[in-house]
User: Fold this.
Amino acid sequence: MLTRTLAWVLAATFPSSGDLPGLDSLDVRPSLRQLQREAAPVFALGLYGSTGAFLLCPLLTVGWPLPAFLLPRRVLDRHAHAMAGHRFYLVRQAMLMIKTVGAALWGAHPAVRSQLGLAAYEPDPGTFRGDHVVPQTPRSAPQPAEIQP
Amino acid sequence: MTATARPGAHLAYREGSPLALEADYIVVGSGSGGSPAALVLARAGYSVALLEAGPWRDADDYPATMLGVMRDLFPNWGATVAVGNSILPIVQAQLVGGGTVINSAIMVRTPGDVVASWASDHGLGDVLNPGNMGPALDRIESELHVADSLEDTGAARFGGSNQRLLDGLRAGGLSAHPTRRNVRGCQGQSRCLQGCRLGAKQSSNIGWIPEVLSLGGTVLSCAPVQRVQIVDGRAVGVQGRFRHPQTRRAGARFIVRARRGVLLAASATGTAPLLQRSGVRSPALGRFWRAHPGAGIIGVYPDVIDMYEGVTQGTASIHHRGEHGLKLESLALPLELVAGRTSGGGKQLTARLGDIRHQAMWISAVRAEAVGTVRQGRLGGVRVAYEPTRRDLERLRLGSALLARTHFAQGASRVRPGVVGLPFEIGPDEVHLLEQAPLHNRAWTWVLSHLFGGAVLGADPNTSVVAPDLHVRGVRDLHVVDASALPTTLGVNPQHTIMAVAWIIADRLANDDRTRTKSASKRD
Ligand SMILES: Cc1cc2nc3c(=O)[nH]c(=O)nc-3n(C[C@H](O)[C@H](O)[C@H](O)COP(=O)(O)OP(=O)(O)OC[C@H]3O[C@@H](n4cnc5c(N)ncnc54)[C@H](O)[C@@H]3O)c2cc1C
Assistant:
C-alpha cells in the first residue's frame, strides 16, 4: 500500500512528457521497495512525511479541497508543479524530498537515459571489503627522517 | 572474552565477542585529515589503528546511480542538514577514505593570506607557518600526482562545459585555470561523486591507507567510535560498536587502547560531537563552524555540450576571492541531481530535462562570513545550526549573475537560475533579474560540501578547543587533525590544506615523541 502510494506520488512528479518516459510508464516498484527496506530511518521519515504533504496539499496549491489522488489528471499535474514553487517553504521542501527520490529513480532508468542519449548505468554492486590481512612487507616507505616537511 | 587483532589487518563488521586492540596511536576517521595523519605516524615506525565509521569499498564496489551513492557512500543517505532560516543539505562521505573518495579531486594550495591570518589572529605561527606548510603541500602534491586537469586528461576529454567556462571567464578578463587534481589517467567520465571506478582518482583508500596496512597498521572499518576514553585527564583509547553498513545492525563492541595518543579526524560534523560525547568541556566546542556554501546555475546551449563527457570539475576561478570571497567552478552534476534541482513538477519538469545534453552547470561558492554551531543531537544524529548572512547571499547573487553573463557570452540561449521567485529561464537581456534576485536563503538552492570548525585550533581558550601545543585543552594526548581544527574558511578547495595540516601535526607528534623517548632513555 505504502509502496503503491509512494510510486503514485513519484509518478505524478515525473510523468511522461513527449517522447520522454516518466515514472508513470516505468516500473520502479522493485527499486522503491529496496529503498524502503534500506533507507536510513531519518531519510524514510522525510520521504513519508513529504508524501503525506503531497496528498494533502491540493487546497493550498490548486484550491481543490480534495486529497491529491482524487484530482483529475490535469489538475494533479498543476498541483505537482505548484508544490515545487509554492510560497510556503515547507511545502517546497516536501516537494524537494519527493523530487530527490523521484529524480534518482527516473534519471537512473535505462529507458530514460537511452531516450536522453546518455550512457546506461551499470548495476550498483552494494559490496564492501570484509576482513583482510596484509602480509608484512619489508619497509619500503620513506624513513622518518625523510618525511619531515 | 575478547578477541584481539594482529597488526597489518583490516577488520570489518563483525558480531560476537568484543574486540580489544592496542596501538601507539589511534586515528578516528580516514578522510582527508585522518589518512595522512595515520600514514605519517606509520611511516615514523609507530603502530597505528585507523578507525572508520563506514565500510571499505574498492573501485569495483562503487555504485553508479545516485540512489546507490546515497545508500553506499553518504552517511544517513545524505540526510544531514544545516538548519537556520532555511535547510541546507550537507554532502559528506562515510567510508574508508572519507571525502577523498567522492570529491572532485581538486587540490589547491593554502593561500598565503590564510596562513598569515592563522598566525596573526589565532596565534598559530609556531605550528602552521609558510616554513612548514609549503614543504608539506609540496610533498602531498608529489605523492598524490597532482596535475593540471587539461594536461592530464587531454583537450579531447576535458569537456565542453569546462572549456566554455575557461574561455568565457578569460574572455571576460578574469583569471581562470584548469583545476589541478590528484588523478592519474583520468578518462573524463564525470563520475567523481560516485567514486572513481577506474581508480584514476588518488583517494586515500587506494594509496595512503593500504600503505598504513602494509606498514603494520590496523584498519577497523564499519567502526563508528562512540567515545574517547579519558582517564585522569589523558586520552587512553576509544570505544564503540561495529555497525553493518547496509542493515545498520549493531555488531560486536570494540575497545582500542592508545599508548601514545588519539587523533580525531571525524570531520567538521563528527569531531566536535565526538568530543562532546566523550565529556570534553570547552566554551569553544561545537562553535566557529563555517562553510563555503555554493549554488549552481545552468546554461542551455543551442549545440550539444555533453557535460558528462569531461572532467567533473575542470575549470575554476578565484579571481574574485579577495574582494568578494567567490570561487567559480564548472560542475557536471549527475542527471538525477540536476533533475532534483530543476524547478517545477509534473509534465513541465520532465520536459525541462529533455535538453540535458545541451546543459552546462557552473557553480559559485562563497567564502561565507556566517558562523554556526555543531552539536550532538538527542536522537544520536548531529545538529548543525547555520545560516548564511545577507552579505553571503549578496556575494552568491553576484557570482551567479557573473556566471549567467558568461554563459550568454559563450553562446547559451537561456539560463536557468534555479532561484525561487525568478522565472524558470532567463534570456540574455534578463540578467538584471538575477542581479535583483531575492536575498533570502529560502529562495536559493545552497549546498554545503566544504565545512570547517567545531573544534578549532588557536591560542585563546575562549575561542579554541585545541591549543597551539596541539593537545585538546584539558586532555593530554588528544589531538584534532581534520577540517574541524581549521579556525577559518579558506576561499579555496580545502582538502589539500586539511591534508597538510594533518601531516604537520602528525609529524610534530612523531618527532616530539622521539625526542621524549630519546631523552628518557639517556636519563635511564
Ligand atoms: C561532493 C564533494 C566534492 C568535493 N570536492 C572537493 C575537491 O574537489 N577538492 C577539495 O579540496 N575538497 C573537496 N571537497 C571537500 C573535501 O572532500 C572535504 O573538505 C574533506 O574531505 C574533509 O576532510 P575531513 O578529514 O575533515 O573529513 P572527511 O574527509 O569527511 O572524513 C571524515 C571521516 O570520518 C568518518 N567518521 C565520522 N565520524 C566517525 C566516528 N565517530 N568514528 C569513526 N569514523 C568517523 C567519516 O565516515 C569520514 O570517512 C568536496 C566535498 C564533497 C562532499
